[in-house]
Amino acid sequence: MGGDRPSAALADPAEALCAPGDLDHTGPLPARPAVPQRILSVAASRRLGRVAVATSAPWFPGLGELLVLEPLPGRDPGAPPGAPPRLRARPPLRLPLVRGPYGAVVRDLVLSPDGSMVTASLGGTDEQHVAGMIHWALEPGGPDAPPRPVELWRHSASRTGPSTDGDAGYLRLAVSRDGGTVAGCDQNSRNVIVLDARTGRQIFNGEEGRAPADRIGGTGAIALDADGSRVAFRLYRGHRPAPDGGVAVLALRGGGPDGPDGADGADGADGPEGPAVHPTGLDWCCGLAFSPEGDRLAVVGILGGALVAGVLDLTAAPAVPRRDRSWTVLGRLPWEARQQCARPQWGGHGPRVAVRSGHTVTVWDLLAERPLHSVAGMGWETTWNLTPDGTEFLTATPEGVHSRVLDPAPD
Fold first, then answer.
1. Which of 117, 210, 272, 402 is the most exposed place for a label (fewest CB within 10 A)?
2. How many CA atoms lie within 13 A of 374 on its CB side?
3. Mean pLDDT computed over 341-353
């Protein structure tokens, strides 16, 4: 279903967003190189105004760093070949992850679309069994000065402990288009939480005040709509996956098609009722994104060993299970990659997602059901993402971060 269609050409070649050595680890590493062992996450604001990069140190994966880059504006499209690349405006800003002697590692990362706030999910090391979130505001630092990071809040997961594969749990993150709301889906406890980005006030918690059988949990992907009034996730009930690959869409405040008015813990409201559940038939859900209008939901998941994607109509009543629906097949996956995470972006050109099959990462247009571009040689030490409008494709390796401008999908 589209997997054999030709890729579109790039509007521009890859551009470097940082100088050589910018990502090198700054802490003492006896007899070890400073080049990161792995890039764990990358995120960008609109127009690449800021790019956040999470790294792990060679031979010391628990010693992670979180950097914020500020690339200069892109070169003139009419510039001749060999024109200077789009490099950083100043040295990277490094954000503090821990307050004590132990290290920490970032497992997921989101930037607000305007680049003014960054949220990191910690967890997954011997010292950092407590999964949690840290949220910073990047305040203006004055003329020609770097931004000033202000830690606004930290939030710990409800329950902690290593998972069955020995890796500590972490929270999969999402941020609303207006940057005012942050959500986390705890991959260990399955709890879903939604917080006000500026204050850290809890808007929704799927566990608090609920009997075990009534808890609303999730796993894999999570997404917020444009104004943070709805959250979507792969549903767990009582820490059991919902049947038929059900994806939950839950109204948090301000009413909407999927629930009542009111916010959990706000103004004395009782909070949202049960979510609308949309059966998908998927074995695993690895990516979700609302349309800008909030009437549709892009879904990326695993079905029978294949990576597939489709779009749900949220204005219609939830349908019967759709395991036999016409999913767009994005690629076959080896066993070890069948729970990969993806972060679709839905901008003016429609929903797009970058996913890996083998060592090749491909950007797909999900409405046109065709690939836009592929990058080979993306191993376990690399990561990738799209800008919030889906027009630029970022790849991050231990050697640096690059961007590629994507053309609209051809007819």
1. 210
2. 16
3. 93
DSSP 296-354: EEEEEEEETTEEEEEEEETTSPP-S--TTS-PEEEEE--GGGTT-----EEETTEEEEE
Which pLDDT value is given to residue 193?
93
Question: Of the segments 94-98, 157-161, 227-231, 259-263, which one has the largest average pLDDT value?
Answer: 227-231
Query: Above 80 in pLDDT, residue 66?
Result: yes
Say how far apart CA 146 and CA 283 lie, in whole Å: 45
What single letter denotes the amino acid at residue 111? L
DSSP of 172-192, one letter per residue? EEEE-TTS-EEEEEETTT-BE
Confidence of residue 315 (pLDDT cuts 50, 70, 90): confident
320 φ, ψ (degrees, to nearest 5): -70, 165
pTM: 0.86
Return the closest-CA partner of residue 330 out of 287, 290, 292: 287
Report d(CA 278, CA 241) in Å as an integer: 13
Contact, 329 vs 3, CB < 8 A? yes
Cα→Cα distances 68→107, 118, 147, 255, Å = 16, 9, 9, 36
Rounded to whole angstroms, the Cα distance separating 234 from 322 reads 15
Q: Is 22 left (phi over 0), alpha (psi -120 to 50) or beta?
A: alpha
H-helix segments, 39-138: none
